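Suppose you are handed only these lines of text.
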Amino acid sequence: MTPVVALVGRPNVGKSTLFNRLTRSRDALVADFPGLTRDRKYGQAKVGEMEFIVVDTGGIDGSEEGIELKMAEQSLLAIEEADVVLFLVDARAGVTPGDIVIAHHLRRQQKKVFLVANKTDGIDADSVVGDFYELGLGDIYQIAAAHGRGVHSLLEQALTPYLEVLQQQADGDDADADEWDDEWDDLDELEPDEEEGEEVSQPFADLPIKFAIVGRPNVGKSTLTNRMLGEDRVIVFDLPGTTRDSIYIPMERDEQQYVIIDTAGVRKKKKVYEAVEKFSVVKTLQAIEDANVVILVIDARDGISDQDLSLLGFTLHSGRSIVIAVNKWDGLDQDVKEQIKLDLERRLGFVDFARIHFISALHGTGVGHLFESIQEAYQSATRRVSTSLLTRIMQMAQDDHQPPLVRGRRVKLKYAHAGGYNPPRIIIHGNQVKDLPDSYKRYLMNYYRKSLKIMGTPIHIDFQEGE
Ligand code: GDP
Ligand code: GDP
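From them, the structure of the protein bound to guanosine-5'-diphosphate can be written out as follows.
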């Protein structure tokens, strides 16, 4: 599970500065979902190879009333959902009453809390941070978020247990990959003839496909989950869970195994829950990270919102495959439907590789076809393609449409091979390939997409100079 790190502290201690540094260029998902505070921000970040989710909780200063109190409650909820809390204080301001209130609250939580003194640049930090021991939270980590000082080592410490698990998993994966590579080498040796070799294969065809149904509150996730499961399977899984845990429900259809990652809390159907209670951004983001394929549900009647785009962005950044389901397609006038389709084309043009389904989860219309796109997206992302086939496709593309001249010399593509899967990565070697214009890169990408029928997943192409 992708760990969640919450940034907590009074206003002005540097939480946003740290958040921005950790998430860099990646899009932050700003949670202004109905019923949730506007002030929480979610982003993806990395230490080394490890991805984590970072949540900026907005400020609490301990003296809130009215609307501010509501916001403080939201911060508290974010703390509850986090695996690790970074409690920021301002080294220059010293200990304030607000810090004491927050520390009091944090000490009562069963949470790993790291006390972080920010803004230690340009002051004699060692002589001032000692005061913060009175907060009773142990060691004090010194950083300067604005300059990045101390940030990396802080995160390494805070996420140590997760990094260790990741390392163990990586060791296991490497073993699998090696095994597979060996097999592939054998194949190449045995069947050097391009016509006879197995050029495309699906090594994971027997594994269940994990898919997550995600979207804003009330778009119809629970209704869709029930539809996809078949009405009466759900009740069986009446398991207890916290707000942030998704439930994993195995199912089978047309001899393919699936696991639905249920973010909507279908199991709680018997009770009446407010959208706010059942909708958790952290849960949604973790489900995306853990899925092979993400079904993003959009409400046809609301059009595409910024939150839909954020969820889409998060999915693409995570490299997950995607299928888009435009729900509540029932009972709409023809001209409204046309309008919605135009809007989708305009705003979702950048994910033209994703299948879009117009469905009614309520009536079941179009729901069956979603499974076909899930399979297609999964297979596209995990399919193995041989070096010879990738190179042949590259040559065909080059024959159809020559690369341009750069500084008087024609760019030459020599050969291509796979550089990874899920999402697929293709590495092309050649002369001056780094200088290829973006338009030609896009052309190559589309050529691969069409020839290999890759849908539902991004493709990355890297270019390498020379042999
Ligand atoms: P937030 O309200 O906790 O999100 O705080 P901000 O990130 O908005 O930061 C508040 C102020 O502190 C801004 O003016 C920042 O530029 C400044 N600040 C943040 N980090 C540092 C730091 O490491 N050193 C210094 N000197 N100033 C900082
Ligand atoms: P969730 O919060 O995303 O899980 O949304 P729900 O599945 O709880 O659905 C929210 C509301 O939308 C409920 O009143 C559903 O009956 C309604 N709804 C869900 N799917 C459809 C649909 O395809 N058409 C129509 N007209 N209403 C739907």
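What can we learn from it? The CA atoms of residues 75 and 415 lie 53 Å apart. The first strand starts at residue 4 and ends at 8.
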